[in-house]
Design brief:
The complex is a heterodimer of chains A (649) and B (251). With 649 residues, chain A is of the alpha+beta class. In chain A, 68% of the residues lie in helices and 11% in strands. Chain A has 3 domains: 1-189, no CATH class; 190-312 and 514-649, no CATH class; 315-513, no CATH class. Chain B has 251 residues and is α/β, with parallel strands linked by helices. Chain B has 8 helices and 10 strands. In chain B, strand 9 (212-217) and strand 10 (220-226) form a beta hairpin. Bound molecules: adenosine-5'-triphosphate and magnesium ion.
């Protein structure tokens, strides 16, 4: 009881430094809890298409957030520790045993643990629910199932139990190792001048180059999914190491430059930054990472969301596509089915090609049928006759024998002048950028070719060699619009489903859109949730940093004022320091983002979102918004800081 | 013409909580000639620091005037105060007030950098460092120095601009007697080189190095003591006598 009272007393006395720590801890708990809730949510489980991949991405996100939480908690705790050690020094001079001190520290940890866990869990859940309410409207009527699940709670609690245990161990070490007089002095001892750390710098540079290279050289969507985590980890580690080492190196070299350093605008800023960077490198690196993460997540998910419309319109030249082989359905029968659903048909047309066949493309641009193509060289290939091509498009092209037209979707066009398949070499007369009436995108991401062959005879000889002998590989697709209610469209879906077989496949724009809304809406929701949480956490961290340093900086600016620095100059110095502290993480995160773009592109392709201009617009908007939010936080922070440091407004 | 004229100076502090006013200085009136070394003594709370802060333009008088040469400090605009301080005045404080983020050398350069007057700074530093005995410490940081060493650096910082007036508030207050003695020797040397010094102190030993001692009590200059041709020892005795007689033995 006695220990408890002392522990509580000390908490109360150090309220000013404890509150921000508890706040940071609470936010960390909330963030982790949020991710846990998502991982176990029915909303993610019920994502129809890519639930596993989303879960995987979420778990990767969780690892990173857990790392960040650990760093942030220990970092914010280090501010608090100094004051606490001094108090412990006093207690021990007053005759308290080390075991007593450890007991007090334990009680304090337990108290702060309970407070952060409770506030974090509650605020995390409430935040998530509020966000869902808000976002369900944007996402298009689909609600996102997210419920309080006990595994989510237990994982979060267990993780933070470990974190606080770590803090306690740090405390115990501090108490056990030092003499009371050292504990007393802990707060007075100024930070010593930073040293150059070449090893850190080297490791950081290597990790950064490695991470960037991974992103720049990623060649397929699958590889992107696989290497994403490694790249993120490398860049994260590099960011920490470089913030610690490179900042010192740069500032020290600036100090060596007399002409630059001994100017009133640089003198105080540079020397201050040198010391600040030592204390702040970890914090700034964390902020840079949070910012990068926000940008990457928003860009990815928003691109998916907005890319959806683009994808659907490319996949569907008309509302309905019905593909028929072996004459399983006639045009009349299709029209009857539509009529049965109570819909009316308009703008109908049809197209005849072979069924798609999986082939592998080799270096000399030769295509061979395969079951075992690897990711890199796998292609979906279809053939059609010139006559069918002309009928479909109305174009008046001529082809001499051994000439073909080539049309490529989901990838780069063929780059050599000839292509070989079915034992024959063809000259590519033209690489088509589109075939009128044919969908410009397909649901899967494998690059796909359509070759237009000169004559019906050519088509026969090719199909004979490439397709099974007993079936007719030709496929006719009917494209048409329908007019009617949603109910009737659903009815059409059921009617067509009854007819679906090896020979009949169909797609409805209406249904695809619905499924995609659910998938990408869910994604977008997760993205927004993450971003908002990140931005808030980041803002809080910067604010906290400035304010916790403001107190310490006050003495310094008082001295400067006495020695003859004018209010104006002081304001300028403070401003340039704060701008550095704000700007650096943003600049770094923008650089990270640009290097991450190739990998993000490939990741997006893994989810069938082609890279469109929309992605860049979304990216620019995200960055602008981010900078705006930062600017607001900056304004609030610098205002508070000015007041704190100088006493003038 | 005197270097510094303090003319019927009055300073009231308004307490933030109550409407009650604290009269720190009632009516202070004295003059300082160029090249003088003056000590200001008085009991705790008598307004010594207040007086110094007013002269230093760190605080505004409630009434009265302070003139440096013929410039009236109360006429200075707020935005010019800082420039005025660094161009005309030097400060030494009881707790040194060095910047921990600057090396000794850069701490001393600070006023020159602020005044954008860094030409020939190396030469000025070298002479000063030799004189102050800190030539070996120039590349260290303040937290690596002893109190005495830190105070020398602070004096270096105050003197590098060759100020017309050196203001010191308890410069030896945080030092042991040996270090205090060394610092006072330094002041005496500076004084011999023509530096005008105004020093606030509690200690009669410190004051005994001065050419004139002002005693402050009840917000006014209560008594003055001139050195004449007394030695330091005789001056100390005289100061102690004056304190016993005039102030009731306290300091
Ligand atoms: N900022 C302030 N606000 C209100 N009252 C003040 C302020 N500064 C000083 N005082 C009051 O003015 C009086 C003179 O204070 P001052 O600091 O000048 O004394 P001092 O002679 O320097 O004392 P010491 O020898 O202890 O340093 C004191 O009564 C003090 O309480
Ligand atoms: Mg005082």
């Amino acid at each position: 009881m006695f220990h408890f009272k002392l522990a509580l007393d000390s908490l109360r006395k150090n309220k000013e430094s404890y509150l921000p720590f508890l706040l940071a801890g609470g936010v960390a708990v909330a963030l982790n809890f949020l991710v846990q809730l998502l991982i176990y949510s029915s909303g993610v489980r019920h994502l129809e298409i890519a639930a596993d991949i989303v879960r995987l991405l979420l778990i990767l996100g969780q690892v990173i957030i857990a790392l960040l939480s650990l760093v942030i908690t220990i970092y914010t705790y280090s501010f608090l520790k100094k004051g606490k050690e001094k108090e412990f020094g006093l207690y021990s001079i007053l005759g308290m045993k080390k075991s007593d001190l450890i007991k007090i520290s334990l009680i304090q940890q337990l108290l702060s643990f309970s407070i952060t866990i409770v506030t974090g869990l509650v605020s995390g859940f409430v935040f998530a629910k509020l966000m869902i309410l808000l976002l369900v409207k944007m996402v298009g009527g689909q609600t996102f199932g997210l419920e309080l699940s006990s595994p989510a709670i237990w994982t979060t609690v267990a993780f933070f139990l470990v974190v606080f245990l770590l803090l306690t161990i740090i405390d115990v070490f501090a108490v056990a190792k030092t003499k009371p007089i050292d504990l007393m002095r802990a707060k007075q001892k100024g930070a010593s001048a930073p040293k150059n750390r070449w090893l850190f710098f080297l490791c950081g540079a290597i990790a950064l180059i490695w991470g960037y290279t991974l992103s720049l050289t990623v060649s397929s969507p699958l590889q992107a999914v696989n290497q994403f985590f490694l790249a993120v980890l490398l860049v994260a580690v590099a960011t920490y190491l470089l913030f610690i080492a490179a900042s010192t190196l740069i500032l020290k070299s600036l100090q060596k430059n007399d002409r630059y350093y001994y100017q009133s605008k640089h003198f105080i800023t540079v020397s201050n930054m040198l010391f600040r960077m030592k204390q702040n490198a970890v914090g700034l690196a964390s902020i840079a990472l949070l910012t990068t993460m926000t940008l990457v997540v928003t860009v990815t998910t928003a691109s998916m969301f907005f890319g959806k419309a683009d994808l659907v319109s490319k996949m569907f030249p008309r509302d309905v596509t019905v593909s028929v082989s072996n004459n399983a359905l006639s045009k009349k029968q299709v029209e009857d089915l539509v009529a049965k659903a109570g819909l009316t048909i308009s703008k109908e047309y049809s197209q005849t090609t072979t069924e798609p066949i999986r082939m592998a493309l080799n270096d000399s641009q030769k295509l061979v049928p395969t079951e075992f193509a690897n990711q890199q060289n796998e292609r979906n290939v279809q053939f059609m006759s010139l006559a069918d091509y002309r009928a479909l498009t109305g174009a008046k092209v001529q082809l001499t024998s051994n000439q073909v037209l080539a049309y490529t979707r989901n990838g780069k066009a063929l780059n050599q002048s000839s292509v070989s398949f079915a034992g024959q070499k063809y000259t590519i007369k033209k690489n088509l950028t589109s075939i009128k009436g044919m969908p410009a995108a397909t649901a899967d991401t494998t690059p796909a070719y359509v070759f237009v062959l000169p004559t019906e005879a050519d088509l026969h000889s090719v199909t004979k060699l490439l397709f099974k002998a007993d079936s007719n590989p030709m496929q006719t697709s009917y494209y048409f619009n329908v007019a009617g209610s949603d109910k009737q469209q659903e009815r059409l879906y059921e009617v067509l489903q009854d007819k679906e077989s090896d020979n009949v496949t169909f797609q409805l724009r209406f249904m695809t859109q619905k499924v995609m809304s659910a998938l990408y809406g869910g994604f977008f929701f997760i993205g927004i949730l993450f971003s908002i949480a990140f931005i808030l956490a980041t803002g809080l961290m910067i604010y906290y940093k400035q304010i916790s340093e403001g107190k310490a900086d006050r003495a310094q600016f008082e001295i400067l004022q006495k020695v003859g620095m004018s209010e104006h100059e002081i304001k300028k110095t403070i401003r340039s320091q704060i701008i550095w502290l704000f700007g650096l993480p943003i600049a770094v995160s923008l650089i990270h983002l640009s290097f991450a773009m190739p990998m993000i592109n490939k990741l997006l392709l893994a989810f069938s979102v082609p890279l469109t201009d929309a992605v860049y617009i979304v990216m620019a908007t995200t960055i602008l918004l981010m900078v705006l939010i930062y600017f607001i936080i900056y304004k609030i922070t610098s205002h508070t800081y000015f007041r704190q440091v100088t006493g003038f407004n | 013409m005197p270097l510094l004229t303090v003319d019927h100076l009055k300073k009231e502090y308004k307490s933030k909580r109550s409407s009650q006013k604290v009269l720190a200085l009632k009516d202070v009136d004295f003059q300082v000639e160029e090249g003088e070394f003056i000590a200001i003594m008085g009991e705790s709370g008598s307004g010594k620091s207040t007086l110094l802060n007013c002269i230093a333009t760190l605080d505004k008088p409630t009434a009265g005037h302070i003139l440096l040469k013929d410039a009236d400090l109360s006429q200075l605009k707020d935005k010019d105060l800082a420039a005025f301080r660094r161009d005309h005045l030097g400060f030494v404080f009881q707790n040194f007030n060095l910047l921990d983020t600057l090396t000794v050398q850069d701490n001393i350069y600070l006023p020159l950098v602020l005044a954008k007057n860094t030409k020939g700074k190396e030469k000025k530093l070298l002479t000063l460092a030799q004189q102050l005995g800190i030539a070996d410490l120039l590349h260290k940081y303040p937290y690596e120095l002893s109190g005495g060493q830190q105070q020398r650096v602070a004096i270096g910082r105050a003197l590098i601009t060759k100020p017309e007036l050196l203001l010191c508030d308890e410069p030896t207050g945080a030092l042991d007697s040996k270090n205090a003695e060394d610092i006072l020797k330094l002041f005496s040397d500076c004084h011999e080189n023509g530096q005008t010094i105004l020093m606030v102190t509690h200690s009669s030993l410190s004051a005994s190095h001065a050419g004139r001692v002002l005693f402050i009590k009840d917000g006014t200059v209560f008594h003055q003591l001139y050195r004449g041709d007394k030695s330091d020892q005789e001056m100390l005795v005289a100061i102690n006598d004056a304190m016993t007689n005039l102030l009731g033995g306290q300091a």
